């Protein structure tokens, strides 16, 4: 097999990494998550929500190089995210009994998309670990909490925007 062509116009130096090397995939995914957080933030005039989303975006960017370098998200920051999730659970109590359709206001739908992307982040971390690489448990906890954070944020945004959740009854669960 010949050598891989490298475009002089590459936007990121690791884009040609071997497919089994998931570090670049993780970095691209976290970059996309932060971009979507910015989009969600643009739809939120509430200052407290904007501040929280800015902090979340910064934390996701701090996690970005973790697989290539070292974990720089701290236990205190994960604890902050955990307390944010707990607060959102209290604020949205009763809005979700089991499953709901991912719908609602435009900003709630952005939050639902972020929820899914954060699940992809968790899955990629597990795949990286299954490939024989070390993945810090704190990073997996962080990514898992992010998914819950954005689910609850979607519920909260629908609540704030006066939109009811639509229950989804699975035929399998």
Short description:
The protein has 173 residues and is mainly alpha-helical.
Which runs of at least 5 residues are low in confidence (pLDDT < 50)? none
Tell me roughly what share of residues is in helical segments. 55-70%
Which oligomeric state applies? Answer: single chain
Tell me the number of structural domains.
Answer: 1
Shape assignment: globular
What structural class is derived from the secondary structure elements? Answer: mainly alpha
Our count of helices gives 5
Portion in strands: under 5%
CATH topology: Hypothetical Protein Ta1238, Chain: A
Order of helices and strands: HHHEHHE
Description of the structure:
The protein is an all-alpha fold and 173 residues long. The protein has one domain: Hypothetical Protein Ta1238, Chain: A. It has helices spanning 23-42, 47-63, 75-91, 106-130, 137-160; strands at 99-100, 167-168. Helix 1 runs antiparallel to helix 4 and helix 3 runs parallel beside helix 5 (137-160). The radius of gyration is 18 Å and the shape is globular.
């Amino acid at each position: 097999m010949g050598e891989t062509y490298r475009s002089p116009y590459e936007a990121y130096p690791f884009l040609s990494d071997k497919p089994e090397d998931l570090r670049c995939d993780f970095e691209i995914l976290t970059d996309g998550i932060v971009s979507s957080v910015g989009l969600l933030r643009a739809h939120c005039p509430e200052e407290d929500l904007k501040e929280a989303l800015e902090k979340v975006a910064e934390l996701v960017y701090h996690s970005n190089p973790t697989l290539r370098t070292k974990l720089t998200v701290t236990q205190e920051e994960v604890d902050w995210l955990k307390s944010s999730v707990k607060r959102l659970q209290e604020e949205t109590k009763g809005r979700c009994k089991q499953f709901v359709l991912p719908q609602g206001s435009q900003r709630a739908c952005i939050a639902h998309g972020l929820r899914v992307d954060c699940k992809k982040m968790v899955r990629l971390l597990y795949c990286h670990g299954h490939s024989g690489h070390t993945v810090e448990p704190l990073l997996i906890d962080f990514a898992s909490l992010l998914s819950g954070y954005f689910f609850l944020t979607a519920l909260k945004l629908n609540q704030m925007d006066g939109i009811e959740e639509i229950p989804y009854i699975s035929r399998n669960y």
